[in-house]
Design goal:
The chain folds into two domains: about 5-20 and about 360-585, no CATH class; about 25-350, Distorted Sandwich (Beta-galactosidase, Chain A, domain 5). Helix content is about 40%, strand content about 25%. The strands form three sheets. It has a nine-stranded antiparallel beta sheet with strand order 6-8-9-10-20-16-15-12-13, with no helix packed on it. Strands 5, 11, 14, 17, 18 and 19 form a six-stranded antiparallel beta sheet that branches. It has about 600 residues and is α+β, with helices and mostly antiparallel strands. The protein contains 13 helices and 20 strands.
Length: about 600
């Protein structure tokens, strides 16, 4: 394989990997529609339709019960018993000390509603009142704190008392125990339900890198949908885009770093639905982005119709997670509450079998060094050490190919009118010299998936978010804040106002220099066209990576430098071996 084929093979391999990730239909989206019980479907339809009206009619003042837990703070809305106000104490919107805390739940009347409701679906067999979004609950405590549950009570005045016992752990997991006490003289039937509602459409992320939107594991299968597909697939009258039956599981709505999910009892048969209810308020389309207004819904409903007889009590429980997608914490909850594949809330992608172990190593190194940047550098060093034999083989192969360039050129010129004969002569030359043209490609092809999975880890995991390095890099998840076009801050203006491409910091420049150095040490001999193209590559990649997270740029810079050092060491050994052979030949 000559240099042109080598370059094309490498380029095609990279493009193939990205194309596979982007174009292949995700197994999570290959949904199969299943039918639920007729009565339950009617109840779900009724609840979805009326809940939208309840939102519009909720004009009474909010009645708040404060939440003061170890990792979160906020409040419960006693009007409707909603979890609709929650911020994370350990995370801020920016790296500035006075920046706002990250908000994961917000009320119906806010610009970006995002809340959780739990309760009971009233059976059409009943003629009694159930709590709704306007029901005002009574609390037995002044606030909800870690280790101290609060009991909410609502009485319908017809012999039914509804209770919710809500507790929260030291992190982001709520437990909600729901009880119905029947003191009337008639049996009452109902279903339990829980639902995450999001009344706005976030700016959707790059789907092939990270999933955001409805997500869940139902019947041990990861199910994901985009906001767009939910809007398009939701049909009247029940506004459900997708549904599936299973036992236990979990489901919710995810962002890049945050998740709000409901977790039913894992031994119960449930039905999960993803849906979208269009807004009845005009205008129904957001003028800024042209996206239809409405509420996204992810809900769990018990499939078994529960009946509470006179004088009896029926209780069920579930959990609500609302917080940061810290992998170790998701694993902890998965083991403690037997939540299937809870770690998949972090989008490790199709290559999770490789991406996840790489993250585990990175996370351990971060714990060891106490600095994610150092963890990144040491991981790259480990990878280089593991693949050193392959790199050495690749470099030797490229060196042999370089030595054969004059003879290869001669064959091309001699047999330029007979392609088949030219290929035969080339293969004969390779056999004669003991050269395998594919041996130079294989080491690169093997390493490409590892580098891609590392890139994925750095992009989707929260552990690098706002993680400092050294010097001016205070956030590895953000671009290098310096800029050559304003002399790194000496000139008082922002060049990106003119064009986003006018943002090139110090680390992207370091990356460009290391890439140029690596090219200079490459033993491959390029034809004039390839040579000109390769000369522009450091400049092109410097501009492209300038707007990427600084952690990625630092990683690629360090990787280029280590590759250059590897090439120097291997070249030195090859030269020493060659000189030793010449000396032996001279003595002979």
């Amino acid at each position: 394989m000559d240099n042109k084929r080598f370059f094309l093979a490498t380029l095609l391999s990279v493009l193939l990997l990205f194309a596979f990730e982007y174009f292949m239909p995700k197994k999570e989206e290959q949904h199969t529609q299943q039918t639920v019980k007729q009565e339950q479907t009617k109840l779900l339809t009724q609840k979805v339709d009326t809940s939208h009206q309840e939102v519009a009619d909720t004009n009474g003042p909010d009645i708040r019960l404060p939440i003061e837990a170890d990792a979160v703070k906020g409040s419960i809305n006693l009007r409707g018993a909603l979890l609709d106000d929650l911020v994370l104490k350990g995370y801020r919107e920016t790296i500035k000390p006075n920046s706002s805390l990250v908000r994961v739940l917000s009320g119906i009347k806010t610009p970006e509603p995002n809340y959780v409701q739990t309760g009971w679906l009233n059976s059409e067999r009943n003629n009694v009142k159930f709590p709704d979004m306007n029901s005002v609950w009574k609390a037995d405590q002044e606030r909800l704190t870690t280790g101290h549950p609060v009991t909410l009570t609502w009485n319908n005045g017809e012999g039914l008392e509804f209770q919710k016992v809500i507790s929260i752990d030291k992190d982001y997991m709520f437990k909600i125990e729901q009880t119905v006490k029947n003191t009337s003289d008639k049996p009452v039937s109902f279903f339990f339900y829980a639902r995450v509602d999001r009344g706005y459409t976030p700016k959707e992320l790059n789907g092939y890198l990270v999933h955001d939107g409805p997500i869940g594991v139902v019947d041990h299968r990861l199910e994901q949908s985009s906001y767009k597909s939910i809007r398009e697939d939701s049909k009247a009258p029940n506004d459900v885009a997708w549904s599936k039956n299973g036992k236990g599981g979990w489901a919710g709505i995810t962002d890049k770093y945050w998740l709000t999910a409901i977790v039913p009892q894992q031994d119960k048969d449930v039905s999960v639905t993803y849906g979208f209810t269009p807004s009845s308020v005009q205008p129904a389309v957001n003028s800024s982005d042209g996206v239809e207004k409405g509420t996204y819904k992810v809900s769990f409903t018990s499939r078994q119709l529960m009946t509470v007889a006179p004088g009896e009590t029926v209780t069920s429980f579930g959990h609500v997670f609302s917080g940061a997608k810290e992998v170790h914490l998701l694993n902890h909850y998965e083991k403690e509450y037997h939540i299937p594949d809870f770690w998949k809330a972090v989008d490790f992608g199709w290559f999770a079998f490789l991406t996840y172990p790489i993250f585990v190593v990175l996370d351990w190194l971060n714990t060891f060094w106490g600095n994610f940047g150092l963890a990144l550098l040491s991981f790259t060093l480990i990878v280089k050490a593991i693949f050193y034999p392959l790199a050495s083989k690749q470099f030797h192969s490229m060196g042999k190919m370089k030595a054969l360039q004059p003879k290869m050129k001669e064959i091309r010129e001699r047999y330029k009118d007979d392609q088949a004969l030219m290929n035969q002569q080339m293969m004969a030359l390779y056999r004669e010299q003991g050269v395998n043209p594919a041996s130079g490609c294989l080491p690169i092809l093997i390493q490409i998936p590892i580098f891609w999975c590392l890139y994925k880890d750095l992009y989707v995991t929260i552990e690098m978010r706002h993680a400092p390095f050294f010097g001016w890099i205070r956030d590895l998840s953000a671009p290098d804040p310096t800029n050559i076009f304003n002399l790194f801050g000496l000139l008082p203006f922002d060049p990106t106002v003119i064009s986003p491409f006018l943002h090139i910091g110090i680390w992207p420049l370091i990356f460009g220099a290391t890439m140029y150095l690596q090219q200079k040490l490459n033993p491959a001999v390029l034809d004039p066209i390839q040579k000109k193209m390769f000369q522009f590559m450091p400049v092109i990649f410097t501009v492209v990576l300038a707007t990427q997270p600084a952690g990625l740029v630092i990683y690629y810079s360090w990787n280029n430098l280590l590759t250059a050092l590897q090439q120097l060491v291997i070249q030195k050994r090859m030269d020493a071996k060659q000189n030793k052979g010449l000396k032996k030949a001279g003595k002979g």
